[in-house]
Amino acid sequence: MTELENNLAKLEGHIARFRKNGIGHLIAGERWTSADAETFENHSPVDSKLICTVARGKNEDVDRAAKAAHDAFPAWRETPGPVRRDILHTVANKILEHAEEIALLESYDTGQALRFMRKAALRGAENFRFFADKAPEAANGLSLPTDQHMNVTLRQPIGPVGVITPWNTPFMLSTWKIAPALAAGCTIVHKPAEWSPVTASLLAEIMHEAGVPSGVMNVVHGLGEESGKALTEHEAIKAVAFIGESSTGSAIMAQGAPSLKRVHFELGGKNPVVVFADADLERALDAAVFMIYSLNGERCTSSSRVLVERSIYDEFVQKLSVRASKIKLGHPLDPKTELGPLIHQRHLEKVTSYFDLARDEGAQVLAGGAVPVTPPSEGHYVEATLFAGADKDMRIAHEEIFGPVLTAIPFEGEDEALSIANDVRYGLAAYIWTGDMGRALRLARNVEAGMVWVNSENVRHLQAPFGGMKASGIGRDGGDYSFDFYMETKNICLAMGDHPIPKLGL
Ligand code: NAD
Asked: What φ, ψ does residue 306 adopt, rounded to 5°?
């Protein structure tokens, strides 16, 4: 038996119950069909086969879940931090027990290569562990004394929150929102993406098994414009943490406006990798290739634009094209696969539309630029693609493609590099490769991005702030930054003596 056959056999064992029973909502610790019994079909991007039917939530289902989160909130808020910590550690332990199952299901539901989904499952556990340890300190504040008063701040959970997640790496991304919200003392209604709903359901089961009390974690499946919209409009939901497209972020802001919803957005990106001639070019090459062709390029922080100093441009781009053409496209459950199928036929059409556009705009297609002639299975495969000779005004240079497609642009000197890097509507991540630290610091300060890596690929430190500027987002996650969103800061001012009080009406 090959490793692929072995993984497919294991997958069948895990997926059978989803095929048989479908996926329902999880509300107040119980499985629910939709109030109107409607469902939608979830097909795998790997072979286009039906995985399962999924409950199609609407207003009534969201209302039930929001009420469950509202009712569970007072007790969860009052649960001591160390108790919340222990429960979240149990969730992390259980994720580790189920890690292989999560990775296999995620891979088949999203088309992401198993080699990356195994790591993503472990990162999900790490996210829970990290925020578990922070739960006891979540309420901590400052003492801000003046001569006559002592100001004391404390943090309190904001209330039930809505979490809305995308399809690209859904398990890991959900834990990144759910773990800090629970550590803060919030309760949750989660609306997972309709194109990859399986592991959200599994996560909710794992959390239930781990002792997260009923109603603290609720999941309502469905379409964005139905259950997603209803969640962002619900009065009981105090804040919405959203990961997805910038245009959806705008819609959510408008939908949440009447109820003055607090929002946290992690949106799109068109992230530059800026490579100077004095950089360690082999490492820069490895990093640029990894950050665009891993995770099918369906990654918000992908290095989708490579800006290369003109003196080394031809040579560097040539090396990029060799590496791109050797990327191992394959069945995502084959551990050797580097690039799997894209999530959906509609997304495939979007990504491939840029191949014609690149040619029309006058760029060269140095690698890929097509769907494979003999795909590994009946999925939405596309070759690892490199566009070269682009200039900053082309659409391929500033629109988010969200696939394994890299656009190379030459530049002359630091000023031009900065101007091209900033000349997009997005501002999520930037990567700078140079041997000159002064230049690295100048660029890092001036580049419009929420996160900058210098001579490094995208290595995350969970304490560090994660988030974007411009159309890439609002707010930061990570460490204490997450608590700024999920909690209210309250100031209590205590008089230490008889300070003068102005007298009126004498
Ligand atoms: P999307 O915006 O289409 O959907 C995301 C989620 O929003 C889904 O659950 C969807 O059902 C829901 N939704 C859609 N319309 C809604 C509405 N009107 N009201 C409420 N919810 C609604 O995004 P996608 O296509 O699933 O994901 C890809 C996008 O996500 C890319 O732009 C990518 O850059 C972005 N992303 C960003 C980050 C980050 O950290 N910045 C991380 C991952 C993905």
From this structure: -110, 120
Residues of the chain below pLDDT 50: none
pLDDT tens digits, 449-480 = 999 999 999 999 999 999 999 999 999 999 99
- Its pTM stands at 0.97
Q: Which of 106, 266, 309, 400 is catalytic?
A: 266
Report the atom number in ligand 1 closest to the C-alpha of 466.
40
Where are the domains positioned within the chain? 3-267+472-490, 272-454
Domain over 3-267+472-490 is classified CATH 3.60.15.10: no
Structure tokens at 253: 């802001």
Q: Is 52 noted as a catalytic residue in this protein?
A: no
Tens of pLDDT along 386-405? 999 999 999 999 999 999 99
Cα separation, 40 vs 20, whole angstroms: 15
226 lines ligand 1 (CB under 6 A): no
Type of residue at 358:
A
DSSP 211: T
CATH code for the structural domain at 272-454: 3.40.309.10
369 CB near ligand 1 (under 6 Å):
no
